[in-house]
Amino acid sequence: MATTQLADIIEPRVFLDYQTNNTPEKTAFYTSGVVVRNDLLDAKANSGGKTVDIPFWNDLGNSEANISNDDPASLSTPEKITAGDQIARIAYLNKSWSTADLASEIAGSDAMGRIKTRTDAYWQRQWQRRLISSVTGVVRDNIANDAGDMVNDVGTDAVGAPAVGEVFSRANFTKAAFTLGDAFENTGVIAVHSVVYKRMVDNDDIDFIRDSAGNIMFATYMGKTIIVDDGMPAIAGTNRIKYTSVLFGAGAFGYGEGSPQVPVEAFRAPNQGNGGGVETLFTRQTWLLHPSGFKFTSASVAGFTPTQAELATATNWDRQVERKNVPLAFLITNG
Fold first, then answer.
1. Measuring CA to CA, which residue among 47, 49, 335 is closest to residue 166?
2. pTM to 2 decimals?
3. How many Å apart are CA 172 and CA 94, to the nearest integer?
4. Which residues sit opposite 219 in a β-bridge?
5. Residue 320 · residue 294 · CB < 8 Å
6. Cis amide linkage into residue 24, ω under 30° from 0
7. In this predicted model, what pLDDT tens digit does every residue of 282-291 receive, in sequence order?
């Protein structure tokens, strides 16, 4: 009787080290500073359970200062500082891939070898999609429950070509940015769909930052670093598509990584394929990825971990701080 050997397929420790070094640190959102990882969130991601509390102190407010006098009987009344509580949901995720030995033999190429080289890219995309889904849920919550005070929505579903005022423009961009009021400078990154980026290029509004050799390092718009990603929300209506562009400030999302009991394992079933043999690779991730200033209510989550669709649902989010303290702004256009 054959015995399953992990070494038949991979060396889990070496594979895990490679994967850890590539997800999600190579995503544009991570390298831009939009998402910040810290030890506190790492610890909370390892704390167990479905949700974690992230408490914070509120500011001291803006009530007028006392007017001093010389009356000993006139006593000041101290005020207090209050606390708030963000609630984040931990994501427990896994993915596995199987390959039949015969398929690799017929193809003349090692299918499992190809899988091993692409798992890091797969998890990068999953991480980024969960982030964008959370952004979508936040903007939907804002429109539904906070009078859209973080959003400039100029897109429509009208018949015909969009008007000038319905597409990305400097005026529409600045209106979105100034939903932050005097905190508008706290954003440094704008993430857009490629359709919107094309309009920015056509408008000749892009500045390219180059290195000493003249090579393009990154593009900027009005001093904001641009992230182009076709995973950004693009909602098709009856007649038009509405694109959501997002302004991010540094640390708009917090991020922590947990440690699954067995992050990577492999299994060989020599009897499957009628004895031809089948190999399966299992990978697991535990993530805590949460927008600053929000509570995840879990109002409509069916399973232990929210799906991407549930992250994008308005009822699962609730802002806990005043608008200026959230380093996010949204612009919705028809391109």
1. 335
2. 0.84
3. 41
4. 208
5. yes
6. yes
7. 999 999 999 9
